[in-house]
Structure to design on (653 residues):
């Protein structure tokens, strides 16, 4: 088949794709970041408001809004992390993510320029790693967060190997 | 810039302003046998910054013009001038002194700057007074060699040679400044060597394909929807003001008329005399009224192209063609002058545009594309452009259509696909729609099929990934020079 025929565009091709979810520990990591960022800022703002003699009602309102935002983000993080999944196919890697804004990125192994493996301090403490793929296109945004370090290392090696055997010029 | 443009056999890059300042070639060689750029380069550098320095001196001194002029009134020999002229003279003198400092600094740079072909045949540039730096441009990785003439350089009949090397960022080598003859000579030599030919091979001739007439360029720039609209508003304001005798709105007219006029003028000056010529190393573009630029578009490096048809051009069947070239226009340090590198032709008949595109993307055939349009319910997401939204493909390329007022048709060869994305925002999901994007190297063309059926677009995205893989396997255009 030299190119895809119009017919097959309308039939589902999802069967056979073996999607892998990321570690649920990522939920903890993200919620920890959220708490570290939001709690001190809220406490500081409310403290300053009370100290400067603003109405207690106003300070309470600010704290309430922050609490609602916190709970919403807390809930959203759980859903967002569950939405992360990747799938290694014969010639490309699929990365899918997002709840509100859904996305799926298909990166052919032959187009990968480099594979980054990185982990921040919180990620390291929890034993998590992010694998990020780069192509020559700046718009390719294929990052898989929340992988166990051993899985991430294996994935990186597999990707690098496949990339090498299929690499092409620009 | 005569109208009877006739390319000399061999090369037709650059020209001078006929000020009689044409410099003889220098062919200077230093003690190590390395070549140097032209000895008047420091002066050209100074001339290039002079207008900016006048501006700075003026901006910083404008508040003090009065006192400055008074204070200077007593200086013998300047007393006969009106105060404001005195101030201008003072600013000019200050700027002149500052440019002398620039010239002195550039003289030191010039002494340290040399270039040569090393024993491996690679091109080397050495520079830096305090921090010495040597750069090596591997000949096999050279993408293009271009001769440009910034305005200051044109005054002196000087030119800049820009050597584009494949690489991450700021991978271009600039030789500032050389006489035109030397610049052409170095371009020819680098190209001949990188093609593996003897360094004395004569430059291949180039045939002029088309030249954009100045009148058509000017008209096309004015016929863009926002520009034409603003001009219309301006005319209405002026007429109404004239009839009613109330001139209060004239300030508004200055803005609505002045801003688009400046934009039109800037683009006109930039693309004036746009000439497309075919040469063996690719399509050569040459343009510019004040600063002449010359660009090479090697066919193997074209990543994507886009036809742009504004509403008012359609009756004349005109189109502009944008092009994404690997490694061009991505430099973060690139000033405004880098952006225009991505125009293949600013305005042309649609047939002519197809003809030019065929020279850089021979496999593209817009007639043979199979189109899948966006479903009717896409009108609720994009009430204006939904009718023109579609994705299409054939054996060699993937294409998208979008826009209603300004119609766009973007095409990427399967072999140039970097990755494929499928996205769905909340508004799209309400109507079971989704978009798919084909990522290419950074450039002006974005290949996004908007607001298609969610399932269909997802499947097309996956199929496109397969088509891209097959495209890469059969692709050999990267070796276009070797054949």
């Amino acid at each position: 088949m030299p190119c895809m025929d119009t017919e097959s565009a309308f039939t589902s091709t999802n069967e056979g794709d073996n999607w892998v979810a990321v570690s649920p520990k990522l939920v903890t990591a993200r919620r920890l970041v959220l708490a570290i960022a939001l709690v001190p800022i809220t406490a500081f703002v409310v403290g300053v408001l009370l100290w400067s003699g603003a109405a207690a009602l106003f300070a309470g309102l600010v704290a309430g809004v922050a609490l609602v935002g916190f709970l919403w983000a807390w809930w959203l993080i759980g859903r967002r992390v569950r939405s992360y999944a990747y799938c290694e196919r014969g010639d490309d890697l699929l990365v899918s993510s997002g709840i509100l804004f859904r996305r799926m990125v298909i990166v052919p192994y032959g187009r990968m320029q480099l594979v980054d493996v990185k982990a921040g301090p919180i990620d390291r403490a929890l034993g998590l790693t992010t694998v990020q793929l780069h192509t020559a296109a700046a718009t390719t945004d294929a990052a898989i967060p929340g992988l166990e370090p051993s899985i991430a290392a294996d994935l990186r090696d597999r990707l690098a190997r496949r990339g090498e055997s299929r690499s092409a010029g620009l | 810039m005569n109208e009877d443009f006739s390319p000399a056999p061999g090369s037709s890059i650059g020209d001078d302003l006929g000020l009689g300042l044409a410099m003889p070639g220098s062919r200077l060689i230093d003690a190590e046998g390395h070549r140097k750029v032209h000895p008047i380069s420091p002066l050209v550098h100074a001339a290039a910054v002079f207008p900016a320095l006048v501006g700075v001196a003026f901006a910083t001194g404008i508040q003090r013009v009065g006192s400055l002029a008074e204070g200077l009134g007593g200086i013998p020999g300047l007393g006969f001038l009106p105060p404001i002229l005195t101030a201008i003279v003072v600013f000019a003198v200050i700027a002149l002194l500052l440019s002398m400092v620039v010239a002195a600094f550039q003289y030191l740079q010039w002494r340290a700057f040399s270039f040569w072909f090393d024993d491996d045949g690679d091109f080397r540039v050495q520079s830096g007074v305090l921090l010495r730096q040597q750069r090596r441009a591997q000949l096999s990785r050279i993408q293009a060699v271009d001769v440009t003439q910034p305005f200051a350089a044109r005054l002196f009949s000087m030119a800049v040679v820009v050597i584009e090397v494949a690489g991450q960022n700021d991978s271009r080598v600039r030789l500032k400044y050389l006489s035109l003859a030397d610049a052409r000579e170095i371009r020819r030599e680098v190209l001949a060597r990188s093609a593996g030919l003897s360094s004395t091979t004569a430059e291949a001739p180039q045939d002029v394909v088309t030249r954009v007439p100045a009148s058509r360029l000017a008209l096309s720039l004015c016929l863009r929807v926002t520009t034409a609209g603003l001009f219309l508003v301006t005319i209405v304001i002026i007429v109404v003001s004239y009839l009613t005798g109330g001139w209060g709105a004239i300030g508004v007219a200055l803005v609505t008329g002045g801003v688009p006029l400046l934009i039109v003028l800037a683009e006109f000056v930039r693309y004036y005399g746009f000439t497309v010529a075919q040469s063996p190393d690719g399509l050569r573009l040459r343009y510019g009224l004040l600063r002449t630029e010359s660009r090479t578009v090697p066919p193997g490096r074209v990543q994507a192209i886009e036809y742009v048809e504004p509403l008012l051009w359609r009756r004349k069947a005109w189109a502009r063609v944008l092009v994404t070239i690997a490694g061009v226009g991505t430099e973060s340090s690139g000033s405004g002058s880098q952006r225009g590198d991505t125009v293949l032709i600013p305005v042309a008949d649609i047939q002519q545009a197809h003809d030019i595109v065929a020279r850089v993307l021979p496999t593209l055939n817009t007639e043979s594309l199979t189109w899948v349009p966006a479903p009717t319910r896409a009108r609720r997401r994009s009430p204006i452009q939904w009718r023109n939204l579609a994705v299409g493909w054939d054996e060699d390329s993937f294409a998208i259509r979008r826009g209603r007022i300004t119609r766009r048709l973007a095409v990427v060869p399967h072999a140039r696909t970097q990755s494929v994305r499928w996205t769905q925002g909340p508004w799209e999901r309400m109507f079971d729609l989704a978009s798919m994007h084909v990522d290419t190297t950074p450039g002006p063309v974005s290949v996004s099929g908007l607001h298609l059926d969610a399932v269909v677009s997802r499947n097309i995205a996956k199929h496109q990934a397969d088509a891209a893989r097959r495209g890469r396997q059969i692709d050999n255009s990267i070796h276009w020079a070797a054949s």
About this structure: The CA atoms of residues 153 and 159 of chain B lie 6 Å apart.
